Amino acid sequence: MKRLLDIVLSFTGLVLLSPILVVFIYLVYQQDKKSPFYMAPRMGRDNAIFKMIKLRSMISNADNSGVDSTSADDNRITPIGHKIRKYKLDEITQLWNVLIGDMSLVGPRPNVKNETDSYTFIEKKLLLVRPGITDFSSIVFSDEGDILEGKSDPDLSYNQLIRPWKSRLGLIYIENRSLLLDLQLIFWTVIAIISKPKALNWVVTQLTKMNVDANIIAVSKRESELHPFPPPGSDEIVSKR
């Protein structure tokens, strides 16, 4: 049923959102006459690398910088790219990855190989399922770029501030996944674009019902500043990336 839902909703989404996609494909191409798409190598289920299709929000060949994490003030982001990232328009093209089976609509967000190579034994469970466009962490950390803004080393800051909780939330999804939860996550991901506080309230309510660790619930409220924390399966804070 999950795969059937993926196929039906991803195809429907591509058809309904194609007018918006066509407009932004044109705008991205017009700014530098380069491909409007970025084929992002990501680790999928069972450590299989696939090409995640993203509407390009950065300058061409931005990945040559060697920096994997993106802050809101990253100078690689183009003017139109800021709009694309703000409204999550680069997620639309990933519906194609869902349609062909690389991804699911709901599941742990796919990561680059540099990151998955450093996963703890527990975090490697995230690679046992299809990665998704959204999950709990996509709502909680939808402002990832803002969190990393001004950081001298965005990759290290990601590993210290975001990864510990993003991985835990991904594992929680895997342990509690169901068709109903998938439908709810899809709905609240859309709501988060309009009203993140409402979406966060829903996330916190769900996590509370699941009796997850109090620290995870506290972080998911996003009411206080994030501090370095060890990833799941480790007692040490990541010190280098």
From TrEMBL:
GO molecular function, one term: phosphotransferase activity, for other substituted phosphate groups
Keyword Transferase: yes
Pfam families reported for this sequence: Bac_transf
Alphabetically ordered keywords of this record: Membrane, Transferase, Transmembrane, Transmembrane helix
Residue ranges occupied by any Bacterial sugar transferase domain in the UniProt entry: 2-194
Spans traversing the lipid bilayer: 7-29
Family from the record: Belongs to the bacterial sugar transferase family.
Name recorded for this polypeptide: Sugar transferase
